[in-house]
Write a structure and sequence with these properties.
It is a single chain. The chain is mainly alpha-helical. The chain has a two-stranded antiparallel sheet. It starts with 7 loop residues before the first helix and ends in a 5-residue tail after the last helix.
Length: about 200
């Protein structure tokens, strides 16, 4: 059976989508090269010489094609650049986690993380609990800071927890989910640093 010909409108739509996907992939490679201070051709040469870097680059390129949020594409570019700058197995493992997380989250998750990164009074979990000091934020507290997150806050939190970007900060104290304190994990801070990097603003 013959395949029906595409109408002019559908053909234009298909070509536009294909072009945008190619542009997004190229953009990520250009940004990664820029972050490293090298030419695109030199970046390609480095990637082709290392199987694990090439695998990560392939995943980043494929992910970038379908990511409309510019901040996420920039984050992917910096994660790839960080892996190229230090291709040690441990660093590559972390960048693969960053890639997977960036590919899975959307604008509301990033907003949630931005709010949580400003939790007072402690920016990081202390090695030992400090009497009288709170740490992290509850879902309700995040929602008060950004009311647009209120309806989806619990679902957003669960996604971030599943990706290891957020962790419990309740020091073992049990509360209802909406009152329990949470904070960004080290991986969460790392990912957020890529999204905030001034080199790609």
């Amino acid at each position: 059976m013959a395949t029906p010909a595409l109408s002019t409108g559908l053909k234009l739509l298909s070509e536009t989508v294909a072009r945008k996907r190619q542009e997004r992939s190229s953009e990520v490679l250009l940004l990664a090269a820029g972050a490293l201070g090298i030419k695109e051709e030199d970046l390609a040469g480095v990637l082709l010489q290392d199987e694990r870097l090439l695998e990560l680059a392939g995943r980043v390129i494929l992910s970038a094609q379908d990511i409309s949020l510019e901040a996420k594409r920039r984050g992917l570019a910096l994660a790839l650049a960080a892996a190229v700058d230090d291709p040690s197995p441990a660093r590559l493992d972390v960048m693969e986690l960053v890639h997977a997380a960036l590919s899975s989250i959307d604008a509301p998750h990033i907003r949630f993380m931005h709010v949580m990164s400003e939790a007072e009074p402690l920016p990081e979990l202390p090695e030992q609990p400090i009497h009288g000091q709170s740490y992290g934020m509850s879902v309700d507290q995040v929602s008060k800071e950004d009311e647009g997150l209120t309806e989806g806050a619990s679902a957003i939190l669960q996604k971030l927890l599943s990706l290891g970007l957020v962790e419990s900060a309740s020091n073992g104290i049990t509360f209802g989910d909406r009152y329990k304190a949470y904070a960004l994990s080290r991986l969460g801070y790392r990912l957020l640093s890529f999204l905030r990097d001034p080199q790609v603003e």
